[in-house]
Amino acid sequence: MRKAEIKRDTKETKISLTLNLDDKSEVNIDTGCGFLDHMLTLFASHSKCGLSVVCNGDTEVDYHHTVEDIGICLGLALKEAVGDKKGINRYGHMILPMDEALILTAVDLSGRGHLRYDMDIPTEKVGDFDTELVEEFFLGFVRNAECTLHIKMIDGDNSHHIIEGAFKSVARSIRQAINEDPLAKNEIPSTKGVL
Prior knowledge:
By secondary structure, this protein is of the alpha+beta class. Helix content is about 35%, strand content about 30%.
């Protein structure tokens, strides 16, 4: 079973995260940030992965450390859970509508961390969540998952819809990338023979 457990303990956050790529039955999210809980629950549902996240962070300061560090932990967990990447698709993409918002994402589990982030979120906050933290989350994620991720907002007016569309679209792209390629069951999906 492709599963990873990550623990991160700093002066800013204490995080326990479990990611299961093959069993979606357990989803338990408690980050101390309601909006992030919502986004991670959506991520688990649309990626078809089991996800448990418990975080005690310095939310009395703001949500920055909590959001960034959970992105780091999720990235580390994905990297560990996919292992040598033998037999997976490697690539995934999705154009996802969320009401008036339309979000394109594409992922390559390449071993190279790179984020191309093109989102024009119209408000600075959704509730008490700073919308600039969406980029921080995905930066932490790609650097530690060692994947390339493109997120492009094609359309949208509502900040909640735009961010929700991004999390759902990324999740579905990742789902596609981690799934088995039936034409290459025991192959590393690279001409180099390693990823």
